[in-house]
Amino acid sequence: MSPVIPPTPRAHARPALLSIVCPAFNEEASIAALFSAVHRVLSGNGQPFEVVFVNDGSGDSTLAAMREVRARHPNTTIVDLSRNFGKEIAMTAGLDHARGDAVVIIDADLQHPPETIPAMLEGWREGHEVVYGRRRNRSADGWLRRRTTRLFYGFLRRFGDVAIPEDAGDFRLLSRKAVDAVIALREHHRFMKGVFVWVGFSTKAVWFDVAPRAEGASSFNFWRLWNFSLEGITSHTLAPLKASTYVGLVVASFSFLYGAYIIAKTMLLGDPVPGFPTLVTVVLFLGGVQLIVLGVIGEYLGRIFVETKQRPLYFTNEVEKAE
Ligand code: UDP
Ligand code: MG
């Protein structure tokens, strides 16, 4: 164990500004409630703050709900993306437009209790650059989701370049330094939970209880989560590519041995009965292995293809800045 060096506490000449970044996709019913919850906690605390709403191409009246909040509270920024870009990019857009000395990322659906924010601020004042929320319970998720989540993080911890804490989500505070680091990474295929860890810096955890979703339904179904996991794995480890090489090597060695055996047998004993079943089995097996390995290569190749285009991460219809 390396010695633990206590972080230097921050001294602020002026009251620090806190930005609350909230990505929202079809959350019309939650926007107002989220704002008042945040407002209640932070005003009670005397903490100056701004809210940065990101409308991620919602099909309902989420944008109107955001504008309603902004009409009453000018310390609100609205980033209106030109279409649905997904939560990872929506969060990035929010971070791009946040001006605070620290930023808290929070879900719109009230699953992340704003009451945890003061504890995060405290961690930040102690000198930590990243203070992430740790879920005390995952009962809001089903059994299958909990199991697969566990498997996924286990795999990344073992083979990836980041050790992502299993019970951490996107609910977290980032210091200005950490935000600048995160928004400096402009790759399209981004797995933010990995990015937050990858940038490094002194990190602390605070516990919170996940609330059930306030309104609407989670937009992360099984298929989306599967793709999300693929993103996490391909962004943070080359293990599947390496594994393909070894699987290929092992299978090829067995094939050569088996081939040599067949040739020797034919030369010594002749070939009285053609081995059709063996032949079919071997051909199918080798074909299967090749297709799997090609698929793995394809996953990485596709991502290289997307990144080489160097497109901007998102477009906005409009950004209504906080005053
Ligand atoms: N979200 C988003 N873009 C999307 C999907 C989700 O900005 O394409 C937002 C959503 O509005 C919410 C947060 O991301 O604020 C978490 O989404 P959700 O509650 O659906 O996911 P879960 O809580 O099930 O992980
Ligand atoms: Mg949710």
Task: Give an overview of the whole structure.
- The chain has an eight-stranded mixed beta sheet with strand order 7-5-6-4-1-2-3-8, with helices on both faces.
- The protein has 323 residues and is α/β, with parallel strands linked by helices.
- Helix 2 links the parallel strand 2 (49-55) and strand 3.
- The chain has helices at residues 31-45, 62-72, 87-97, 117-125, 143-159, 176-184, 192-198, 222-236, 239-269, 276-308, and strands spanning 18-24, 49-55, 76-81, 102-105, 130-135, 168-175, 203-208, 316-320.
- The mean pLDDT is 85.
- It contains ten helices and eight strands.
- Helix content is 49%, strand content 15%.
- The two termini are 47 Å apart.
- Helix 5 runs parallel beside helix 8.
- It binds uridine-5'-diphosphate and magnesium ion (MG).
- Residues 23-25, 27, 56, 84, 86-87, 90, 107-109, 111, 218-220 line the site of uridine-5'-diphosphate.
Question: Can you tag this structure with a few keywords?
Answer:
single chain; 323 residues; eight-stranded mixed beta sheet; binds uridine-5'-diphosphate; binds magnesium ion; 8 strands
